Amino acid sequence: MTSLFRVTLRNSGISNFLFQFSGNNEMKFTRTITSKLVKEARPQTESKPKPWPYKEKKYNYFHQFIDRTSSRFDDNSKIIVVEGPVAAGKSKFAKQLADDLDMYYLPEANLDMYYFNDYGFDLRTLDDQLPENARSFDVNNFLMNPRSIQSASFQMNQYYIKLSQYVDALAHVLSTGQGVVLDRCCYSDFVFLEAMYSQGYVSKAAHKKYYDMRNETFGHLLRPHLIIYLDVPVPKVQENIQKRALSYEVKSPALTKEYLTEMEKHYKQNYLKEMSKHSALLIYDWSDGGDPEVVVEDIERVDFNRHDNQDLKFKDWVQHLEEDWAYLRRKYCNEKNYILTLSQVTVFDVPELLLGPEEAHERHELYNNAPGNEFEYGYNAKMGDKNFLFKMSAKYRDTLPLRERRQY
């Protein structure tokens, strides 16, 4: 249950304000995140610029003089991350929350987003043409074979894909003004690594390389405004896994009580503790599910404007000059590949993260000649692309697709 008793002003349309008192006892109103219902009922006094098409068009230095980033911001221009253990109901809740708040939903980043190319071809179908250690390895493979030599590189790839998605989330907020709800994010990915490390699935050297990669990239990001943690005890998680009845989870030798307990420990003792210094935090007992509307009411009470020079909370999002917002927008829209490149730390001293030159070359050639990968997106005649003479450039950024992880 999320709550036993609560008094709400939601139906009156007043719940999207917080009351604050200044030093002279003057009462002020502070705007917070508002639900879609309240926004629709409230008269619109200002018109916002149309969303910038950041997936197709760069935002350069000259654009900042005619397209102010802050002009699109409103109460809901926030990043919210939904966290919790396996089979807690995060995806369903996050989708509903995004709809209730009129925000953009990003499903949990997964390697399906990498293995499917822009034309929908699944590179994993080429596995039978590759040596075993050069084949694809996703979460389903890990759950069925956690002691594989590929487990360490799998977790590094998991972080990489979550980092890529989080940069997309930042670009979306700054370019459109629309808030984003994510199902997990790169900041919490380490809880999986720690659970794997505790069970001996990754080596000490690979464990260190993961944190080298993480530390190289975190300084370039803005932390989320709000983290919502759906708390489910380990025995209930195991029960939910059985009820969900996904074969690779039910039969998994990885999802043991010890593994899940280690995840829970690092979530609560490390991740939530550290992130609560910078982000607002809401925690709910989700053992039997909960009511998203109750969560929306709680979100509407959070003061996201609270900040002073001695407080780290929301400090990442305090920018005093329009030029600062423009810089961040260019960074996340135009320089995504640079941020991702920072995660490519040297791994020559970690055998489990290496692939032999022959195997690497074989995979490279096979992937590059797969349907849709021979040329840049939009220039593959075999895939139905046309009018090449009128195309003057290639896709300037790789934005992850909205693809849910396959379940079977």
Automatic annotation (TrEMBL):
Gene Ontology biological process terms, A to Z: mitochondrial electron transport, NADH to ubiquinone
Domain Deoxynucleoside kinase: 80-316
UniProt entry tagged with the keyword Hydrolase: no
Domain of life per record: Eukaryota
Any single Gene Ontology cellular-component annotation: mitochondrial matrix
InterPro entries given in the database record: Deoxyribonucleoside_kinase (IPR050566), DNK_dom (IPR031314), NDUFA10 (IPR015828), P-loop_NTPase (IPR027417)
Keyword list, A-Z: Electron transport, FAD, Flavoprotein, Mitochondrion, Respiratory chain, Transit peptide, Transport
Keyword Cell membrane on entry: no
Named cofactor requirement(s): FAD
One Pfam family matching this protein: dNK
Compartments (UniProt record): Mitochondrion matrix
Main function: Accessory subunit of the mitochondrial membrane respiratory chain NADH dehydrogenase (Complex I), that is believed not to be involved in catalysis. Complex I functions in the transfer of electrons from NADH to the respiratory chain. The immediate electron acceptor for the enzyme is believed to be ubiquinone.
Similarity comment: Belongs to the complex I NDUFA10 subunit family.
Protein name: NADH dehydrogenase [ubiquinone] 1 alpha subcomplex subunit 10, mitochondrial
